[in-house]
Amino acid sequence: MRWLRRAAPHLVLIPFSLAVVLPLLWLLRVSLTDRRTAYQIPPEWSTPHLGNYVEIFTAYPFATWFWNSLSVALLSTAVALPLATMLAFAFARYNSGGAPLRLSILASQMLPPIVMVLPLFAVFLGAGLLNSRTAVVIAHVGMNLPFLAWMMIAFFEGEVRQLEEAARVEGATRFQAFWKVAVPVAAPGLLAAALLAFIMSWNEFLFALILTGKRTATLPVGLSTLDTHRGVEIALLAAANMVAILPVFLMMPFLRRYLIKGLSLGALK
Amino acid sequence: MTAAIAQRDRWFGFAMTLPGLLALLLVVLFPILFTLWTSTSDFTLLKPSNDAFLGLSHYTQAFATPEFRHALSVTLAFVVAVVVLEFLVGFAVALALDKVEHGKAVYYVILLFPLLMNPIVVGLIWKMFLHPTLGIVNYVLSLVGIPPVDWLGVPDNAFWTVVAVDIWHQVSFMIVLLLAGLAALPKEPYEAARLEGAGTIRCFFWITLPLMRPVIVVTLLIRLIFAVKTYDIIYIMTRGGPGQATELVSYYIYRRAFVGLDVSQASAMAVILLLVVLALTAWLHRYMRSLAQ
Fold this sequence. Notes:
The complex is a heterodimer of chains A (about 270) and B (about 290).
Chain A: H1 2-31, H2 51-59, H3 62-94, H4 98-110, H5 113-127, H6 133-158, H7 162-169, H8 174-185, H9 187-203, H10 206-211, H11 219-226, H12 234-263
Chain B: H1 2-39, H2 57-64, H3 66-99, H4 104-116, H5 119-129, H6 136-143, H7 155-183, H8 188-195, H9 200-228, H10 232-237, H11 249-259, H12 263-292
Helix pairs in contact in B: 1-12, 2-12, 3-7, 3-9, 4-7, 7-9, 9-12, 11-12
């Protein structure tokens, strides 16, 4: 009976893990086949070949998409982070804005992108900003700012205040207590929140689809066009997908501790 | 003296929140107001100056449009299906992870992978695997004697295929949050129940479920709100088809605005979607506040 109790969780976890891992391994395998083998059913084994990873950069503007995604994600996070941190600190320490502020931040974060993209498209069309990366950066700031503010409120509320109060007694101004004490203490959380915001922007599709053009397309938008591009080259598509998900997977070790807070909007520790 | 300090605290808080609030005003509130305006006028992209006030006629028109009503009902079915199924699968996996003695860290890392993946990538790879003749899934099924399935070409199949892919992508969200809740449960009630001879199943229904209630409600509500907004996976896998079988409301509004170029009508539908999401968010907010007290 004892061994059954110990084995039971694995009976659930092994099939579940296989369901997650096998598709990813298969994707990796397809990305390493040559273009003819990729289509073979039943699958035919060949020696791994890295050509697809080179060819995506020559056959498609993959480098441009990658760079566009990277710059949009970095910029929108860099703009939103200081604004969100200041807002969150004022709310957590001085209750600035009170309950209405908390509700409007939560509501801003929950807004359906389709609701926001209609007016942004019309406004950017009028302002001549359509098909520019600036347009997507602005849209992503609107998405990342409330998310970051919500995360940072949770961090600052969970932090002890004694250090800040001690600094104030020593003669530090309110801003110094924020900038020299609270921010350094919250730094690991700040970094994790920034990484999550970066990932949200990196993965975002609808704003980028509507607001960018051919030369400003981000990675998800570029990938979505491969689907219809002169028949689907699945070996190339697989390699492109691998490159799109790898940077995010590499960030995982830095995120693990903070993921729960991010996903639950600070409701769970 | 204290009044002066309180006054300075208020000014400091005001100065610190101002930049963020201004940004939110510009990139969030202004677009919403703009949508409210276009939804009540005959605004078009081709002639932006054409903007006579029409009142609520686009709203009554929206509900009179069979395709919009259809999209709403498909969305409802989709949301109920993914939230319920992801909760059941997620809770089972979370309970197993909470109990498992070996390999917990490995299992945990594995389940985080889909969660961080780009929805476009998820849609693309599953579309590739589920191809009727070239896909690996039908090949594997053929090995055990199951005839090929047209996963995305038949309306009922397409709906459940999209639901299944969404589960693959999002179920880890439920697992991570439910597991955090389980890990935080107190141990004493279980020991007391054991002494009184309660078995595993009784412990689950008498102790685990009642104590997990707040975590379950928050998790379900957040997932529900995100499911209502689902768009990417539909765009990449089915474009709402075949027919309108998988046309969720976000995708329908997109099609109406950017394919049909009927921005005013699409705006009214977007505001209806917005109101649904805001109502759910207000509910979530109230619940989270009641927990904090």
